[in-house]
Design a protein that fits this description.
Layout (H helix, E strand, L loop, with lengths): L3 H8 L1 H10 L11 H13 L4 H17 L5 H15 L15 E6 L6 H14 L4 E6 L4 H14 L2 E4 L6 H14 L4 E6 L7 H17 L6 E7 L6 H11 L4 E5 L9 H9 L3 E5 L7 E3 L2 H8 L12
Parallel strand pairs: 1-4, 1-5, 2-3, 2-4, 5-6, 6-7
Antiparallel strand pairs: 7-8
Length: about 325
């Protein structure tokens, strides 16, 4: 079984490779000089770490180089990792479950971000942790989304509540909470319709889902998580800001990081909005959604070897 760090390392390999390629393999063997610092700066921008974080890493690197001209690439990677860990301090989100009622997790985001598959994968994660899970197919705008979640639920042996295409999404959410309660489920995960953050009508539907859920339990949803496509990079910041303003977000799930060289994008989003990150998605398998951990993320994206790489999950 792959260690958790290895999953991060494999999932973020394109970002790590992109940095390595842009710097001529700087982190692996080259001694530092003025031109390689420039190359590093360009590579960090390309990986979408954002201006502020990139400049902090470059400034720390220049300081270290000023003191030690024999500085090597691996030393620079360690500097970058140290800066990144400082920037990301407080970014780890951890789900805490209610003891006396179903914990409701609502996934929101734009079309194509991976909400539906993430709903199923998160359900599988919760089930593996010993929780009793129900998923709700509240993306009633797309029949394909309902069928997709049904297929995933069958494959992963998850209970599901769904409506017909065109049904009132809030009504399906209301029914799903009742079903979770009556079936003694302790975790309810709701897949909502993808929507542009600029579409006020669809954003209002999210508010309706929240109002209807609160007829059952005024604290719901306990977690509203925005599913963000990591390949969009810093373009996701405005999207996240609007969802946060209009719906209220508790955190993020960043998906599709295995297919992009822009693995630094979550740094900019966290730095801008201070929303914790709960999970990262690295592929299509159910276990490719992994709890976000700062150390694993940082060391994987800089091509470092975590001490626990050889440990099994």
């Amino acid at each position: 079984m792959r260690s958790l760090f290895r999953k991060f390392k494999e999932g973020l390999s394109k970002s790590a490779q992109s940095i390595a390629d842009a710097t001529g393999g700087l982190f692996r063997w080259a001694k530092l000089d003025a031109s390689s610092i420039e190359e590093l700066e360009e590579a960090l921008f390309a990986a979408d770490f954002g201006y502020e974080t990139t400049e902090e890493i470059i400034e720390e690197t220049k300081k270290a180089y000023g003191k030690d001209k024999s500085l090597r690439g691996q030393d620079v990677a360690a500097i970058g990792a140290t800066v990144l860990k400082r920037v990301l301090e407080g970014s780890e989100g951890v789900l805490e479950y209610r003891d006396d009622r179903p914990t409701v997790i609502c996934l929101v985001g734009v079309n194509g971000s991976g909400k539906t598959t993430t709903t199923a994968k998160l359900g599988s994660q919760c089930k593996a942790d010993g929780r009793q899970v129900l998923v709700a197919a509240c993306d009633t705008f797309r029949a394909a989304a309902i069928e997709q979640l049904k297929e995933w639920s069958n494959r992963l042996e998850l209970d599901i509540v769904s409506g017909e295409r065109g049904a009132d999404a809030a009504a399906v959410a209301f029914d799903s909470w009742q079903a979770a309660k009556s079936r003694n489920k302790d975790t309810l995960i709701i897949d909502t319709a993808g929507r542009l953050h600029t579409n006020s009508k669809l954003m209002d539907e999210l508010s309706k889902i929240r109002r209807v859920l609160r007829k059952h339990d005024e604290t719901t949803p306990h977690y509203s998580l925005l599913v963000v496509d990591g390949s969009l990079g810093s373009n996701s910041i405005e999207q996240a800001r609007v969802f946060h303003e209009k719906f209220g977000l508790d955190g993020l799930i960043v998906t599709k990081l295995d297919g992009t060289s822009r693995g630094g994008s979550l740094v900019g989003i966290y730095r801008e909005l201070k929303l914790p990150i709960y999970f990262l998605g690295f592929g299509e398998q159910s276990d490719d959604l992994q709890p976000y951990q700062i150390n694993n993320y940082v060391e994987a994206v800089f091509g470092l070897d975590a001490e626990d790489e050889s440990e099994e999950e």
